[in-house]
Amino acid sequence: QVQLVESGGGLVQAGGSLRLSCAASGRTFSRDAMGWFRQAPEKEREFVAAISRSFGGTFYASSVKGRFAISRDNAKNTVYLQMNSLKPEDTAVYYCAAGSNIYGLGRSYVDYWGQGTQVTVSS
Fold first, then answer.
1. Region of residue 53 (phi > 0: left; psi between -120 and 50: alpha; otherwise: beta)
2. Cα 54 to Cα 33: distance, rounded to the nearest angstrom
C-alpha cells in the first residue's frame, strides 16, 4: 500500500503562484510514477502532470505545459507541483496519484490516490 497526503492548496489571485506538495509513505518503491490530477466542479477528473522516480522524466497536460512544473525529492518521498501564471480555470481540487509509469498516469491508470487539496484562483 502507498499513502499519499497533499498540502499547499489555497486561494490565490489570477496570475499568482502556488506550490503543492504530496508526501508518500508505505511501499513507495513499488510505484515508479507520481503525479497530479485535478477535478473542477461538475467536470471529470483530469490528468495534470507526472514524474518518474527512476529517471526523472516528466509528462504534462497541454493545458498546463509551460506554466506548471512537477518535481520530486526521492529522499523525502515527496512530489511537488509548482503552479505559475494561475488562471481562474485552474480552480479545482488537486489530487496526488501514484502509478506504474508516467504515460500510464497520463491515461489515468492510477493505483493510489491522495485525498485532494483545494486550489481556488480568483479573477
1. alpha
2. 8
| DSSP per residue, 86-116 | --GGG-EEEEEEEES-HHHHHTT--SEE---
**Nearest residue to 49 (alpha-carbon basis) of 114, 94, 2:** 94
pLDDT tens for 10-64 read 999 999 999 999 999 988 777 899 999 999 999 999 999 999 988 889 999 999 9
Mean pLDDT of 76-95: 97
Q: Could you tell me the end-to-end alpha-carbon distance of the chain, in angstroms, rounded to an integer?
A: 40
* Cβ count near 62 (within 10 Å): 6
